[in-house]
Amino acid sequence: MNQKTKDTLERIVLPAILAIALVAVAFWGSEQSALAEEYKTSTTAMYTRAFTELCDNINNLETALGKLRVTASPAQYVLLLDDVWRLSGASVSLMSQIPASHIDTADLNSFVVRLGDYAHGLTKKAVRGIPMTEEDQAQLAELHNACIRIGAELNERLAVGDIPVAVLTNDGYFTSEASEASEAGQGEGEGSGQYEEQEGLEEFPTLIYDGPFSESTEKQEAKGLTGNPVSEEEARTIAAKVAGLSEIEPQGASDGTIPAYDFHGTYEDGREVDISITKTGGHLLWLMSSATGGAEGVPDEAETARFREAAEKYLVENGYAGMRATYAQYYGGCALINFAATQGDVILYSDLVKIWVDRETCGVIGVDARNYLFSHTERTLNAPSISMEEAEGMLSENLTVKDRALAFIPITPQTERLCYEFKGTCGEEEYIVYINAETGEEEQIFRIINTEDGQLVM
Amino acid sequence: MEHNKRKAALMLVLVLTICALLQSTALAAALRVGSRGEEVKQLQTKLKRWGYYTGAVDGIFGSGTKKAVEHFQRKNGLTVDGIVGSATAKALGLTLSGSSSSGSSGGSSSSSNSGNLYLLARLVYGEARGEPYKGQVAVAAVVLNRMKSSKFPNSMSGVIYQSGAFSVVSDGQINLSPDETAIKAARDAMNGWDPTNGCLYYYNPAKTTNQWMLSKPVLLRIGNHSFFRG
Question: Could you give the domains of chain B?
Fold first, then answer.
């Protein structure tokens, strides 16, 4: 290369390329920032829509509750309750779409969920012909007032003009007035707010009713937890015995809904096992290990029977007598079989024990007795007022009955009813229908869905 | 020497600039005959599920896979070339490596049980990979406990995508493909195993600065996570 070309290259060509590149980068940068602005606008629009719709819904809830207090027509009453239920569901879904922290929205969310749950309960009562009580009236009035207050606050914010998305995100917008001054927490690992005890709960009235989301359900105590407190050492002996291991290491305790001691062990082939033993009575709460094989799909009948027998034997050996296998799933090398307790001829569907059986060795590799420990007690059995034949006569003509039984089925977490269980088919589909053994009402319909993993009940 | 140094510096700047430009427009790497690997497997699984492909899901793009892709392209009004480029990938709901990380990965569109299972597994993988197995089940159990609580949305996607609820949703890790362990953990939790005994929250004490979380009594610790009821 001679000196002249070298000079040209250095003085003109390279700087020129660099200049072009810079222009290109600048262009690209402005494109990117325009794009970011566009995304920001569309996200803000979505947040704004969700928030505005939430406000609308709360206002509509307030109106429906107001109307409920003055209606005298039973039909109108049911339609309005239905409205409350629908609006509550929609509000909950909208609340999860706004950018407020889940910690801040928790209380309002609870209130709206319970409101809907309560209204749905009233609908069920109404369609049974049970009239509204004075307590219901008082409860509705209280709910109406709470809704007026919440609605007014939301409307005020809306009236200010644009929706403060940033405000929603991090100033504890949905916590009560009392704690509004304090910065509420943000997501995990971000920000650092000064924390003050939030005293927003009294802003929302307490609802006394029996539904899946009621406070009493969330604070429910385990009924089947019998016996005296055991020490960690005693629990360890029990854990080692159920796991079939000589050595097992303690892993502290978990003081949740059912307080328990946790243990961990390793089998000779390297598979691990986790066990929880309840602090009261030393019952086995959990046992979880893994399968040795990886078989998938539903096995043939002979095999299914073998798994069931293995599980039944295990249950009897561990003090669960008279359990009846209900349905099963097959995945990841194991068979998961659900067992329900029985009392006489009556199946107790709330008292469930799940057993996982290894498909290769037929050994039990998992136990879940939580539901059983939660609800197992001796039930008071009254003779049914209607006979099984009478109940069968009340079924739809479309159902061809294949199997019959008497069972206690859970209606809400705290109530259960004695029902006749009819398993049958309608065309190709399988259904289970429950008829109340006292009143003859149809309490529940399930549809059985056969999947490649086994049966599911919907 | 001086000149050479300057020239090298200029060239370096130039190369870097061009790289930056290229990356910004990053073209999706196409799958074609001869391609191998996890993405081909995903492609074959999808084609098989939809009935376009009957061969083995082996992760090798052979003539059988090419035919299936062509069949798919014909049916969906795409250019029939047997190559999975960005348009075909989009129609298939596949995310090719190298393509910009906009959309979520495929396979979670169904609202069925298996869709929920996969979504939960992705959350577990993002939040708790590297934790002990029990800790992974525990994270999944917290999601399921939230679904049952009045304080939270009542659907799985509602709980997982709730604003600020999980950091992996904001940083995009939720879109990573879960491993077998995460899927098994999600499944065990969905079948009822709850190592947390009813907890609704957890945090990593080494990472969180959230005073509200830190002020709550911890019910149990598994691996790096502390769990509490709230």
Answer: 38-92 (1.10.101.10), 113-196 (1.10.10.2520)
